[in-house]
């Protein structure tokens, strides 16, 4: 049923059909990956002398409440659900009100696969009612949240009242530092997919392009040419720029563009809403000369908008990349491996991409630093956030003697 589920995903989110198909494939990979780790969650033995046996066990929390965003409803549900089930937790997913169907299809697949009744549950409804009731429920022992910083604060306050551990992924304002020796073809391709894929509605999308001044004009011209060549239309036609999820989302993107102009940024491309049949379309947008203290430089837009800022030396480029409250992803473009490693070590983000964007995979840990959240999803590291380590010590009344050899 993979193509059927992809079509459902495309219809409810508006994303390109090929992207929706990719989301189905990634969801399957998450399920298989964590199924393979389910019997590899091990404790350790601690030597404490002849009269003690001491070891650790890694135990599930119990009920894990998972609040999933609308931009990747199938993939992101599978990501946290698979990890929770593999570690022995049961799951209640609060599906996004703007895209609830993909999660329901995943729950049906879990039932068909033979998971025990009650292991996976999907709750639909609005965040203020269904979501709030879920995180307030006394049987919920663990919370996973992916979404905005503002909503994340609300979730954290409720969790703090009951002292419930959380995994929080709260978005980002990711920057790519482009040095003068960079492969500009790779930079432009990174912008194409990193900024404009899914109409820019990705938590770790490339929103700020920081370019060494000697190549800033050439880079900007090449980015502009790329943007002007992007196709715009419905997801079912696999266009490059598909509609935003809602009217409210588009209004927010338009507001961010107006604010950028009022704060002195130079509009290079786009900046306006589009009337393209039905749907909330926004023209792919590029702003240049974006000041570090401006709203566009500092705040997440969650739309197809790129800001471009020039810098004069590597240290300044890194400082600009780190000059936000968030730290989900960052990137560096250079042919010099020493400079790439130097930069990656100094970019304060949960994941750093070199000479590409979205370089991570199912197997690689993902999460933020600073106000982008805490805890990790993906990879083996994610397992740690879904278990509690407990210690068991046993005193032996009659210690065994002898060498132990037979």
Write a structural description.
The chain is globular, with a radius of gyration of 23 Å. It has two domains: 2-170 and 372-392, 3-Layer(aba) Sandwich (Aldehyde Dehydrogenase, Chain A, domain 1), CATH 3.40.605; 174-354, Aldehyde Dehydrogenase, Chain A, domain 2 (3-Layer(aba) Sandwich), CATH 3.40.309. A seven-stranded mixed sheet has the order 9-12-13-8-7-15-16, with helices on both faces. It has a six-stranded mixed sheet with strand order 4-3-2-5-6-18, sandwiched between helices. Strands 1-19 form a two-stranded antiparallel sheet. Helix 2 runs parallel beside helix 3 (73-86), helix 3 (73-86) runs parallel beside helix 4 and helix 7 (184-196) packs across helix 8 (216-228). It is built from twelve helices and 19 strands. The chain has 406 residues and is of the alpha/beta class. It has helices at 2-13, 17-37, 73-86, 101-113, 127-136, 149-162, 184-196, 216-228, 247-262, 295-298, 314-322, 337-346; strands at 52-60, 63-67, 90-94, 120-123, 140-146, 166-169, 174-178, 206-212, 266-269, 273-274, 281-282, 285-288, 305-311, 326-327, 329-333, 351-354, 369-370, 373-374, 387-395.
């Amino acid at each position: 049923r993979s193509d059927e589920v992809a079509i459902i995903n495309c219809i409810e989110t508006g994303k390109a059909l090929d992207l929706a198909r990719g989301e189905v494939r990634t969801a399957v990979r998450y399920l298989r990956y964590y199924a393979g780790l389910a019997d590899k969650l091990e404790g350790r033995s601690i030597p404490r002398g002849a009269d003690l046996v001491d070891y650790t066990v890694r135990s599930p929390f119990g009920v894990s409440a998972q609040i999933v965003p609308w931009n990747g409803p199938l993939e992101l549900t599978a990501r946290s659900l698979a990890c929770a089930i593999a570690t022995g937790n049961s799951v209640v997913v609060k599906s996004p009100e703007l895209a609830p169907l993909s999660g329901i299809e995943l729950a049906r697949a879990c039932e068909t696969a033979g998971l025990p009744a009650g292991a996976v549950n999907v709750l639909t409804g609005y965040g203020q009612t269904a979501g709030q009731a879920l995180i307030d429920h006394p049987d919920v022992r663990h919370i996973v949240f992916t979404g905005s910083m503002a909503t994340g604060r609300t979730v954290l306050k409720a969790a703090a009242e009951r002292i419930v551990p959380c995994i929080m992924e709260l978005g980002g304002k990711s920057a790519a530092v482009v040095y003068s020796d960079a492969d500009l073809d790779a930079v432009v391709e990174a912008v194409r997919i990193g900024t404009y894929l899914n109409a820019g509605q990705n938590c770790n999308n490339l929103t700020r392009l920081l370019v060494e001044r000697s190549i800033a004009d050439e880079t900007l011209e090449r980015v502009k040419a790329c943007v002007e060549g992007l196709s715009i239309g419905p997801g079912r036609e696999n266009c490059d720029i598909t509609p935003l999820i809602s009217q409210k989302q588009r209004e927010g993107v338009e507001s961010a563009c107006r604010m950028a102009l009022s704060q002195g940024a130079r509009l290079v491309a786009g900046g306006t809403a589009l009337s393209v049949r039905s749907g909330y379309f926004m023209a792919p947008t590029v702003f240049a000369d974006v000041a570090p203290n401006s709203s566009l430089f500092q705040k997440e837009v969650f739309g197809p908008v790129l800001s471009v800022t020039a810098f004069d030396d590597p240290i300044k480029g890194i400082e600009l990349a780190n000059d936000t409250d968030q730290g989900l992803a960052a990137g560096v473009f250079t042919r010099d491996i020493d400079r790439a490693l130097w930069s990656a070590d100094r970019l304060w983000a949960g994941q750093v991409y070199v000479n590409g964007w979205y370089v991570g995979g199912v197997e690689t840990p993902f999460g933020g630093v600073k106000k982008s959240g805490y805890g990790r999803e993906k990879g083996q590291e994610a397992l740690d956030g879904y278990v509690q380590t407990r210690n068991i010590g046993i005193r032996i009344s009659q210690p065994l003697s002898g060498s132990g050899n037979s």
